[in-house]
Amino acid sequence: MAIFKRNSSSVPVPFDSVRFATSWLLPPSVLFILRALISLYLFISVITTLALLNKRNPSTARHYFSYFTSLTYWGLAFYFAFAAAHTGSYWRSGNPFLSRWPKVLQHMHSIYYSTITTYPFLVTIVYWALIYIGFNDQFEWYKNISEHALNSVFALFEIFIPRTAAPPILHVVPAVIILALYLGLAYVTLASNHFYVYSFLDPKNHSRGVIAGYIIGILVGTIIVFFIVHFVIKGRRWVIEEKMGKRGKFTLGRVSGEDIERADVYVEK
């Protein structure tokens, strides 16, 4: 059943947990199923990849978590698991788990969202522009398409399908800090395992100036991608909500805090 619900007034809340759990296009039940299926695919993919890598080359498998690609892929898998849990709890009870979390965890979830909508595009761009040299077999094709192409597809899903607001501008700071910390991890890997996780960091391949240029370029690229995503999400909200009037699909009686003030809110039972 679908109805239009009119509410007189409300005080906007600073953290709108319902936005993370709902969609302008899909009812909560369908959004929950899709997020859960994406998370399941991601976990199956990484477990399968690790098992096959260990069978083919155990030393490569041991270094799996030294790669930014692997860490961001696991990040996507866990994000979709949490997002499915929030949507599922909202669908069943009208109150997402996220709304009951401490404020610090709510804001960490928001930062988490900012990273999973930024890093996958960075990984995809860097891989296809600097690293790709072809695939030797079906396993490499499957692994690299999953980790360096589908990762961005899943990020696009979270940008365009849910009702999430644009990440706060300040989230660019933790996005850059986390990437800088990964750079430190890359050199820890060099010190402990004596290899460069990415060839463009190897001074045998490039001068120190070129390596510094790559590092600065990737950091700047992260900032650019973050702001593109920020304004794309703002544009999505403007087009979908303001121009098309699609405020969202909700569990009956549980409407997003900032949308209660709107005149017409679509509610699905």
TrEMBL record:
Q: Which domain of life is it from?
A: Eukaryota
- What keywords appear on the UniProt entry? Membrane, Transmembrane, Transmembrane helix
Species assigned in the record: Tothia fuscella
Q: List the GO terms this entry assigns under cellular component, sorted alphabetically.
A: membrane
Q: Where are the transmembrane segments?
A: 32-53, 65-91, 111-135, 169-190, 210-233
Name listed for the protein in its UniProt record: Uncharacterized protein
